[in-house]
C-alpha cells in the first residue's frame, strides 16, 4: 500500500470508496462522496490523498479550508476520511491522516479541525478546545490541532461544499 496525491482519473474510484466506507456508518449523512466531489469541483481540496493497493484506490482523505468567524485564517478541516470496508481497522486511515497533516504543515497550514470520534482523532493530537466551536455539534466531537500559535478563537464554518446533497 502506498499513499499519493489524488490524480486525474481517480475521481470515480474515490467516489466509490467514500460511498462504500460510509454506507453502514451510523453517523453518516449519506452525502460524504458528494461532498468530496463538490470540494473538488470548487477547487477547495487543499490536500487530497489516496491509499493505493495493487493498483486500486482503497482509501481517501480530504482537507479543505475552513473559516473562523467568517475569516480565512489558514486553518483546514479534515474530512471526509474513508477506507474501503475490507481494509478498515488495519492502519490505513491513520496513515492517510498522518500524511495529510504533514502535507498541510508543508503548505503553510496553521491548524486543522475535525468533527469525529475523540478517541480516534485524539491519537493525532486533536483535542476539543474551547477557543473553536462548530454550531450544532457536541463540543467533545469537534476537535482542533494547532500547528502554530496563537490559536484563533471563534465559530468555525466548513466550505459550502459540505452542504452537497445526494
TrEMBL record:
<dbReference type="InterPro" id="IPR000182">
    <property type="entry name" value="GNAT_dom"/>
</dbReference>
<dbReference type="InterPro" id="IPR016181">
    <property type="entry name" value="Acyl_CoA_acyltransferase"/>
</dbReference>
<keyword id="KW-0808">Transferase</keyword>
<feature type="domain" description="N-acetyltransferase">
    <location>
        <begin position="1"/>
        <end position="152"/>
    </location>
</feature>
<dbReference type="GO" id="GO:0016747">
    <property type="term" value="F:acyltransferase activity, transferring groups other than amino-acyl groups"/>
</dbReference>
<protein>
    <submittedName>
        <fullName>Putative acetyltransferase</fullName>
    </submittedName>
</protein>
<dbReference type="Pfam" id="PF00583">
    <property type="entry name" value="Acetyltransf_1"/>
</dbReference>
